[in-house]
Automatic annotation (TrEMBL):
PROSITE patterns: LYSM. Residues 65-111 form the LysM domain. Belongs to the E.coli NlpD/Haemophilus LppB family. This is Lipoprotein NlpD. One of its GO terms (cellular component) is cell outer membrane. One of its GO terms (molecular function) is metalloendopeptidase activity.
Amino acid sequence: MTLNQGPGRGGRLFRVAVCAGIAAVLAACGSSPRAPVENRSTGGISIPRVDPATLPGYEFRNRPGYYQVQPGETIRSIARNNNLDWRDIVRWNSQWVPNPDLIEVGQVLRIEPPAGSVARTTPVAPRVTSPASTTPAPRVTPPSDAGAASIALAWPTQSRTIVTPFDDVKNKGIGIGGREGDPVTAAADGTVMYAGSGLRGYGNLVILKHNTTFLTVYAHNSKLLVKENQSVKKGQTIAEMGKTDADRVKLHFEVRRNGKTVNPLSYLPR
């Protein structure tokens, strides 16, 4: 290129300006060899382009247990996606990650413990991103009455003689033999739901409620000794044995669980 503007003062000034511009361009090229590139992890700010081969850990790329940082990722997002604690990743890469908030696209990180090391911190579960994926709600156990699932009953009479075996279709309970006037006692603590003779076939009848699950039934008594809504204790005498609406002296005894009759012998002591 010819820069001949004549020997005058104007020509000399022109040549000085052109040379200064060229020097500035050369100086800029020498001090900033990196061209700007947009990196989404920095919120859209332009930063110099970096040759991945010059980044820490690049020689370990594509090896098992290592991961190459992608645009938009952070230490925490990498840890989350690999079910790790981000502090473990920082610890395993401490030689080239002095600041966990400054990692570069293309950098290679160790994401498995090195030999002799373990993940000492608790892994963080991956974030659920799919709309169809939901975290199950914690199971809540509804409150229930104490002893409602089962109940310990006492024999309602001194006699253990079974004169009528249990039959869920025919009699729905057991018949316990005895003598007229023998005491009939509450099989467990409870409240008198019914005391009377209004149910045909049961004679003088007492029904006790023990909780929201269990009822007991005492039938064919000669005499009732409790009233409705009265609280009774286990072993308390509630009636006297008889044969009202029955062909012989006996106590007809039922156990009902959630309204259904069950074999009383399953709940009575042997």
